[in-house]
Amino acid sequence: MNLKKDEKTCLFIDGSSLYSTSRSLGFDVDYKKLLEFFAAKTHIIRAYYYAAILDTEDYSPLKPLTDWLSYNGYFLVTKPAREFTDSTGKRRVKGNMDIEIAVDMMEMAPHIDHAILFSGDSDFRRVVEAVQRQGTRVSVASSMRSSPPLIGDDLRRQADQFLELASLGANFTRRQTESSRPRTNPAPVRHPADQMSEPEDDPLS
């Protein structure tokens, strides 16, 4: 892992993507340890965390996490998730944060040396390329060791560096879930805010 102490670095964390990836690899993320881990290795300017939250209920399962993050060194970016019933009668939730992440990466690129994106979505390839053209190095954190792999080939090839979360996870693990080995269960693992719903678009597909 090539991180430099004198580089001004931003973390861009797609909350749903990191949740799905870490759960697939068998661990839960300790966000305090995650920030400390990267801050010890590079100069963190800002750590963004992105989450779409259902506002149809008085209490969101994400609220304790987002409240904690906003008071503990993270810059929280949220928007309401949209809940609807599709033509087959299934309850679905849409809350993609790709645009918010892309805009922030482009705005921060002139002010930083290194961007670390926590997502495996190949749709980010173009924004990664655009940020690189501004002279900013881009690393992508996801996993090839999950089953199936949760990083798109296009995105992995475009990034200056690929960070394998299966290798790094031990540095910011809150607790082991069931196994330290990647899960092979094909059922999708969802963010706490939509565990009871079926998302319209899986950001990792």
Automatic annotation (TrEMBL):
Family annotation (InterPro entries): LabA (IPR047140), NYN (IPR021139)
Positions of the UniProt region annotated as Disordered: 170-205
Domain NYN stretches: 8-165
Task: Supply one GO molecular-function term.
Answer: RNA nuclease activity
| PANTHER family recorded | SLR0755 PROTEIN
Would you tell me the protein name for this molecule? Uncharacterized LabA/DUF88 family protein
